[in-house]
Amino acid sequence: MSSQVTITAYAGDAKTLLAFDLPKAATKDLAGFTIFCKPGSAKGYYLWNTLRFKDPAKHAQDAKEPPASSVNAPFHKFRWVHVPGIFHQGLKPVFANYTYTVTPRYFDSTGSMLPLDKSLSSTTTIAVGTFKKKGIELAFTRGFVQLQGFVHRFSRNAPLRPKGKALLYDINAVAGKNAKGESFTFADEYAWMGFTTREKILGLLEQVVSKKSMRLDVFAYD
Q: Which of 33, 39, 141, 153 has its CA 20 to 30 A from that of 93?
């Protein structure tokens, strides 16, 4: 069977909306979609999906991949927003041309998911980076909906500031350790949560500080 999945990629601010389409005949026994991502010249990886089968052992599983890998737990949607750095890559993900390979997955007659069939795959490539258009630059933080990514990278009870009520403190101080036993700082947490917005704000502040002729007015809403 040849590939029948069509992929459309929409660029955002350091993120990509992937949308899939299949002919109606190719949706019979559909189990979901597996997504493989190749960022520029960096090592590729399968995107993760924390919504897994109730009993994974009843379905084809790749023992070389984590249980949440979409090769073992395919996405149950015809769309997915990929934000680099949620699970893979470091605090500063690669901005480059990303190649996405999407493979529809199917159940057999007993309801067991079949192994990955690469002959069904389709690929698309899109530039991933910060959003800039003429004089406009758009930036976003990582939303609270990305909590699973935060817990994976840091920890469920990671403190966001030291104990006490001090307004000024060392953000480079160690805040805690993740599940792998790796230490992380408050600055690491802020960089991850603030994402492109934090970079834009700090860049703007540094620009104003460096020029005495400039002033900064802030209108903030919480």
A: 33
